[in-house]
Amino acid sequence: MRRIRDLLTTRGRAFVAAGITLVLCGIGLGFTDLTRIGVLLVALPLLSGLLMRRHDLRFALERTAMPGRIQVDEQARVTLGIENAGGAASPLLMAEEQLDYALGDRPRFVVPKLRRGDRQEVHYSVRSHVRGRHRLGPLGVRLRDPFGLSTRVAAISGSSDILVLPRIVPLGGGQPPGSGVGAEGAIPHMVALHGEDDVSIRSYRDGDDLRRIHWPATAKTGELMVRQEDRPARRRAAIVLDSRARGHHGSGTSGSFEWAVTACASVAVHLLDQGYAVHLVSDETADDSRAATAMEVDPLLDVLAMAETGSDDQFGDVLQAAHPVTASGGLILAVVTDLDEEIARRVASLRQPGGTALAIVLDPDGFTTTRRPRAAAGDELACVPVLRGAGWAVAVVGAGDDLPSVWAVLSGSTSRVGVA
């Protein structure tokens, strides 16, 4: 009886209450017709509730999202196939698809009567401004009698998910830092040295061993050139993400961590397009040793889609995992928050002599609601002079800074190194 009572709507319960009242009044006053009306009012909702329980609401669901991986603010089309798996025809149903809040409003639609084995397809679109893995389903259905006396709500089991990738910001078609003639992995100048095999020659970089200076090439080109005996087959880049929760400020898509993830994803795609072998070093890849392996674009973006803030200890593991990756040189990009001097020195040590190292430093005050000016020269973050002193190019950014402009500055397209 309790289950039937739960099926009754407000109208149905009012019918029952009114019917009981009329029955009591009819018996007390001796009015048989009044008693009969009361019995009818009680019986109608109860009978309706019994009929609601008898309906077989067994369905087989199939969800397909096209595409199954989308970027932030991109749209995906979901096809929901509903098949009657019960032993009899299904009634007319009102349905509502349960979605994660980030995917927008829940679609509502009518499922027509389906005979056994019949199938109905429903299409709807989803869009998310929040990266991550978001759930589609289960499907909620509601059956209501024509008089509105009872209703039955059920959830049809089965769900799937859709992966929302970080936003990819185009960074232009320019060459990345250190990718010019003579850079690591590029086609170097080749000169014969005392009749031996050819030796690759590249431009001198700050920190190179002076014993490697190639004087004949220096005299010919008018600039310092150094020998590079080992020429890697493919340029290598390491992207280091600082995920420390206490260093990031702001919330949601306007927070510093989302800015950092977007920067890592955009630069990674840009470098992969330029032919780099890209290593992503983050909390997620340091935990399972994936940082040691160059990643293709899809698995790399999958990792960043699920990236979350972590503890200071985890960032220590990230730096430890980054050292073997950067030991052989190559391009380094570190996207970090304000670092104390000790951690800044650990980050700075990732750069090898002659290597190219870039740092995007997220200013904590640049991602808060009350921002202070950063114009004063003595007001720079503590980690900036440490990194610059170790040969890093540094850009300090806030929420309003444009990533392509920051990248253009770091890659040498403009004369400034810091970004206000």
Model description:
With 420 residues, the protein is of the alpha/beta class. Strand 10 and strand 11 (199-203) form a beta hairpin. The chain is built from eleven helices and 17 strands. It has four domains: 2-53, no CATH class; 59-165, Immunoglobulin-like; 189-228, no CATH class; 236-410, 3-Layer(aba) Sandwich (Rossmann fold). It starts with a helix and ends in a 10-residue tail after the last helix. It is elongated, with a radius of gyration of 33 Å. Strands 2, 4, 5, 7, 8 and 9 form a six-stranded mixed β-sheet that branches. Helices cover 30% and strands 26% of the residues. Helix 2 (10-29) runs antiparallel to helix 3 (32-54) and helix 5 (256-273) runs antiparallel to helix 7 (297-305). The longest helix is centred in the first third of the chain and has 23 residues, at 32-54. It holds the Pfam family DUF58. Residues 201-285 form the DUF58 domain. The chain crosses the membrane at residues 12-31. InterPro entries: DUF58. Keywords: Membrane, Transmembrane, Transmembrane helix.
